[in-house]
Amino acid sequence: MKKGIILFLFTFLLASNTVVLSKKEKETNNTIIQEEFFIRKWLIDKYNAIVPSFLEGEPKENMLNFTVGYDTKNNKPYSKLKINILLPQIERKFSKQSLKTAKTSTIKVKLLPILQIYKRVPTLTIKWSLTYKQDSLTNQFKFNESIYYYTTFTEYKEITTISVQKFIAIENLLFLIQKSYYSTDKTNMYYKTGIYYYTDFYKFIRTYGYEMGGEREKLPFIYWYKLFFTYRHILFDRRYLFMEFTPYLYYSKEYDFHPKLFLNVSFNVKF
């Protein structure tokens, strides 16, 4: 028994990043249906680190996220550090592709254990996510539900995101609606919606965006508005190092709905 367990672990470590546990495929009525069940060992993604989180239809986890910067809104420098140990992720995927209409529908269910510092205490966090994605020649629709359960404190947060990409025939245009709920703030709920236009990227990415949002416990329903431009540029040809420059116009109840112009500049390490 022990030899079998040791052999399995040794084989698992030497295997490729994705270990396929089962895979099925069939074709009926010009439709290809696939079902996969696999374990993904490494989730480090340097290539997409430069993409802002508001352009992601599904929250992405990174091993390291360090930011130091200055925002004129708070008129002081700031720093953020987040370190995650990402354990092997279990994922099940169902997809259906129409050969006639070139439309593809995909459902993914993921379970990802994460070791991280939460409230200054080492915590095992369990992330569960459900993603429905539909691709066609005219647009891409994505729905994601992600729940993070913090085992040490028996607390959780829930993030729901709906995004539509390439709508009204513009390739790099994205519309997004997002809702966040925290078990530590049970009577409240945070929400925002935004529309973004972004450039294709290699060494830099430019994003033009308009957002508005609020929370259940504050009136009016739309508490703030934000019009912004973000420029990110990688440094030393390393996709996990980049500078960010964001001037933005902020219109909020916080300032009695008088428009304020602010600037955020930051240095980032993310992979």
Word description of this protein:
The chain has 271 residues and is mainly β. It contains 1 helix and 15 strands; from the N terminus they run αβββββββββββββββ. The protein has a 12-stranded antiparallel barrel. It starts with a helix and ends with a strand. About 3% of the residues have low confidence.
List keywords for this structure.
1 helix; mainly beta; twelve-stranded antiparallel barrel; 63% strand; 271 residues
Query: What is the CA-CA span between the terminal residues?
Result: 38 Å
Query: What proportion of the residues is helical, as a percent range?
Result: under 10%
- Count of separate DSSP helical elements: 1
* Biggest pleated-sheet summary: 12 strands, antiparallel, barrel
Order of helices and strands: HEEEEEEEEEEEEEEE
* Secondary-structure-derived class: mainly beta
What is the overall pLDDT average? 89
Q: Compute the number of strand runs.
A: 15
